[in-house]
């Protein structure tokens, strides 16, 4: 058998424990508003991974490209001295150690991707349910799921006319929907025999992102996909009649789909309403400029070591909504520079890994995992200029998952 024509994956499911740990971890991430206690659950997963590694006598190796990032993790731990949030720092530490442990296992990323597909599909279905089904029916389901968090969900749905799905924030729901949107796009690229299904799912998931009214999620999901495509196919963009015709029909399909969504549904309503309201107030940044100015004042008071992780939130009641400014303010110049070095090393390694995988005759499931992880990673990095990527619980956990998807171990056999 020619290895260049057919490569099979050697997926080892000999440990039910490992799969169950991963399942528990993902439930706490993708249903954090339902299960609560995310730090405790992640800590339990860390302990179980450690037992598994010890029992099966794994050697724990730290990849060179992660050394800069783990130096930043060390700096974050020291940030407790400056008054940083102990709970967040502990969670941040646990997530990164869990990521390190997951890098030791063969093909774990493939199982991770399957769980991400399932759980984000559930969020898509719940978003459709919230948007189109009667209010009384939605209220009944949300009360049973969210319990004490129901009022927050209700406020976003009924008062603000935004779609939080089964979460307490439209932004959280948008994050899950963007992940599903990216997964479907990567599938569209890789699996030619499922084009129609994937195009329909792409349009459906994008329509639900619109209902969250999160402009950054809408725009940056497309930008991230474009970056992925440019990196993996820099020299393969052939201009010929067949490709032009195919591109034309794809654009027609997308344009017609968006037209139907605009004229026959209400998915654009909340997005348009929010944009008009911000325009009337002459506040297109939605208050971000004021937060950035306030953060700069705090930075000038303590530029070297910062004011402590999550201290800006304690002082103002808000995060900065720019993860890079907030890290600069809360860890100072020292922490910020180390953070940038660690992040750049991860990105450089991830770009190289992506190009390596897509230039080889690898199995599509490996390409899917690496491509999905990379595109979500790029989304999170760019989203950091407008959101709270590396200083909020959910995004940092998803970022750690993406590092494993892109740079994890994949075992192949003839």
3D architecture notes:
With 414 residues, the chain is mainly α. The protein contains 18 helices and two strands. The protein starts with 7 loop residues before the first strand and ends with a strand. Mean pLDDT is 84; it is low at 1-14.
In short:
The chain is an all-alpha fold and about 425 residues long. The chain has helices at about 15-30, 30-35, 40-55, 65-80, 85-100, 110-130, 135-145, 150-160, 170-190, 195-210, 215-230, 240-265, 270-280, 290-300, 310-315, 325-360, 365-385, 395-405, and strands at about 10, 410-414.
Return the structural class: mainly alpha
Distance between the termini: 7 Å
Count of strand segments:
2
User: What does the radius of gyration come to?
Assistant: 22 Å
Overall geometric form: globular
Strand order of the largest sheet: 1-2
Q: Major sheet, described briefly?
A: 2 strands, antiparallel
Strand content: under 5%
Q: Spell the H/E element sequence.
A: EHHHHHHHHHHHHHHHHHHE
- The proportion of residues forming helix, as a percent range, comes to over 70%
Low-confidence residue ranges: 1-14
The overall pLDDT average reads: 84
How many helical elements? 18
Defining key terms:
2 strands, 414 residues, mainly alpha, 1% strand, 18 helices, globular, two-stranded antiparallel ribbon, 71% helix, disordered N terminus, single chain
Produce the secondary structure layout.
Blueprint: E1 8-9, H1 16-30, H2 32-35, H3 38-55, H4 67-78, H5 86-102, H6 108-132, H7 135-146, H8 150-159, H9 170-190, H10 195-211, H11 215-232, H12 241-264, H13 269-280, H14 288-301, H15 311-316, H16 323-358, H17 364-383, H18 393-407, E2 412-413
Antiparallel strand pairs: 1-2
Helix pairs in contact: 1-3, 1-6, 3-5, 4-5, 4-16, 5-18, 6-9, 6-18, 9-10, 9-11, 9-17, 11-17, 14-16, 16-17, 17-18
């Amino acid at each position: 058998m020619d290895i260049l024509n057919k490569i099979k994956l050697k997926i080892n499911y000999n440990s039910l424990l490992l799969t169950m740990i991963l399942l528990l971890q993902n439930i706490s991430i993708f249903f954090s508003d339902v299960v609560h206690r995310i730090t405790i659950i992640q800590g339990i997963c860390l302990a179980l991974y450690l037992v598994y590694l010890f029992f099966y006598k794994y050697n724990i190796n730290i990849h060179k490209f992660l050394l800069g990032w783990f130096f930043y993790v060390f700096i974050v731990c020291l940030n407790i001295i400056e008054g940083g949030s102990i709970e967040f720092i502990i969670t941040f530490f646990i997530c990164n150690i869990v990521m390190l442990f997951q890098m030791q296992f063969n093909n774990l990323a493939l199982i991770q991707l399957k769980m991400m597909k399932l759980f984000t599909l559930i969020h898509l279905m719940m978003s459709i349910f919230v948007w189109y089904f009667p209010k009384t029916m939605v209220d009944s389901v949300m009360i049973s799921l969210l319990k004490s968090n129901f009022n927050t969900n209700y406020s976003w749905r009924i008062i603000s006319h935004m779609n939080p799905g089964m979460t307490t924030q439209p932004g959280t729901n948008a994050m899950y929907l963007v992940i599903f949107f990216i997964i479907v796009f990567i599938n569209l690229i890789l699996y030619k025999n499922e084009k129609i299904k994937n195009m329909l799912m792409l349009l459906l998931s994008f329509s639900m992102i619109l209902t969250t009214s999160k402009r950054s999620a809408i725009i940056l999901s497309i930008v991230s996909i474009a970056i992925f495509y440019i990196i993996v196919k820099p020299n393969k963009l052939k201009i010929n009649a067949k490709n032009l015709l195919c591109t034309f029909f794809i654009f027609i399909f997308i344009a017609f789909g968006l037209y139907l969504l605009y004229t026959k549904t209400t998915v654009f309503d909340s997005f348009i309403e929010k944009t008009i309201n911000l325009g009337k107030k002459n506040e297109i940044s939605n208050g971000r400029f004021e937060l950035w100015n306030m953060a700069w004042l705090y930075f000038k008071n303590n530029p070297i070591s910062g004011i402590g992780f999550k201290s800006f939130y304690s002082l103002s009641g808000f995060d900065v909504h720019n993860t890079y400014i907030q890290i600069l303010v809360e860890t100072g110049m020292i922490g910020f520079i180390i953070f940038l070095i660690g992040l750049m090393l991860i990105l450089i390694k991830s770009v190289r890994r992506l190009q390596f995988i897509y230039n080889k005759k690898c199995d599509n499931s490996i390409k899917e995992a690496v491509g999905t992880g990379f595109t979500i990673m790029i989304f999170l990095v760019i989203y950091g200029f407008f959101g709270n990527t590396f200083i909020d619980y959910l995004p940092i956990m998803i970022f750690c998952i993406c590092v494993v998807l892109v740079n994890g171990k994949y075992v192949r056999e003839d």
